[in-house]
Amino acid sequence: MQNKSKNQGLTLVEVAIVLVILGLLIGLGASLIGPLTKRAKIQESRDIVKQAKEAVLGYAVKNGYLPATLDNAGARKLDAWGRELIYYPDNEIRSSDVCSKSTTATQVYECTNTDCTSYNTKSNIAFIIYSKGEDTDGECTGATSPFYIRQQGMPYNSPCTYTTTNPKYYYDDVVVYVSLDEIRALRGCPKFRITTEFLHYGYKGSQYGAQLSVTDGFPNYTWNITGLNQIGGLSLKTSDSCSYDSVNLTCDNASPCICGTPTNYGTFSIKIEVTDSKNQTATKNLSLTINPSSDEGRGCTTYSLIISNQGNEKSYRIDSGICRNIGNNESLSLTGLISNNILTIYQSSACSGQTLLSGSMQNLDSNGNCVVNVSCQGNNCGAN
């Protein structure tokens, strides 16, 4: 008898089931191809735009000005969809050295919500590069300053009108930008700064003069000095002259003078601030010591010390003794001090931070009455 085969083929029903399953799998795969392809192109465009930014940045750092085109910088200029990237350099630094500029007129608004009714403003932008994305519509990023960086997927109709009802476009631009400050830093441009390193000492009741100076700024300058009111008798002069001892200083807007006759003595904290015509700012903190006049603070066998503090908690010590704190709106008095006892007052507790005042009892006794009165307001301390 002939044996029947143990392996039997698929029935028509089973074949039909397999074909249905294969069809579903193929359909599912086909439905994923579109989104995956778009995602890949977006990522590729991001890489291309980033590479273009680095090429333009490198060109500017090397040459000191921006290239006229992406071709000049040797950058790729087509995105993943084969369309040209958009490049907008700031006109002020296309032909002049970036080190001669401190500001630009170009701004970028980074939207913080979907319809861009609120945004963060980025100023002094050197250049912006972007891809219009798959929809080729770049109106929501813009063609003039201010440029907008909107949230991905924002629904809108042309010309960039936010809508959730039958939108024609969904924002998909890929945008990068670089600030002027970034280029200046990488190129090593000189920084606007105050070059005065110290203020020489003076004497109470005697004419005083000290000249300030800046570098790498753009005239005219606006100056502000805090702390002179603690000394009294001194002011800032931006014109005319200032004479002291046998020295005659010429004072002007670029080199002003601290000038006058001090009415108090001690060591004072002075804060100098200056702004140039390009809105660059520079700040420096210095100390100014005014010594007592030759006929003051003499003949005392002992001294009394009174310290009054308004502002942050500070600390003090006599000579190298125990450090003690003094709080806001607190006053204290000490007696039995001698002429060469040194008082030091510190900006912070535990005798830390900047030294706000330091001097002997004899030098700090501005009235010659054997009493040293120290008043601290904020970070300024003076003796009288």
Please count the helical segments. Answer: 4
Helix proportion range: 10-25%
Helix/strand class? alpha+beta
Average predicted local confidence, pLDDT = 88
- Number of DSSP-assigned strands: 28
The overall number of domains is 3
Distance between the termini: 132 Å
Strand order of the largest sheet: 11-20-19-14
Q: Report the biggest beta sheet as strand number plus sense, adding barrel if it closes.
A: 4 strands, mixed
Low-confidence stretches: none
Q: What percentage of the residues does DSSP assign to strands (E)?
A: 35-45%
Radius of gyration in whole Å, from Cα?
36 Å
The global form is elongated
Note down, in words, how this protein is organized.
The N and C termini lie far apart (132 Å). The strands form 9 sheets. A 4-stranded mixed β-sheet has the order 11-20-19-14. It has 384 residues and is an alpha+beta fold. The chain has 4 helices and 28 strands. The chain is elongated, with a radius of gyration of 36 Å.
Name its key features.
384 residues, four-stranded mixed beta sheet, 4 helices, Immunoglobulin-like, 3 domains
Write the layout of secondary structure elements.
Elements (H helix, E strand, L loop, with lengths): L11 H52 L22 E4 L18 E4 L7 E4 L2 E7 L15 E3 L5 E3 L3 E2 L6 E2 L3 E6 H8 L5 E2 L7 E2 L4 E4 L2 E2 L6 E5 L1 H4 L2 E4 L3 E4 L2 E4 L6 E4 L5 E10 L5 E11 L11 E8 L3 E5 L5 E3 L3 E8 L4 E7 L3 E9 H4 L6 E7 L2 E4 L1
Parallel strand pairs: 2-5, 11-20, 21-27
Antiparallel strand pairs: 1-4, 2-3, 4-9, 6-7, 6-8, 10-13, 12-18, 14-19, 15-18, 16-17, 19-20, 21-24, 22-23, 22-25, 25-26, 27-28
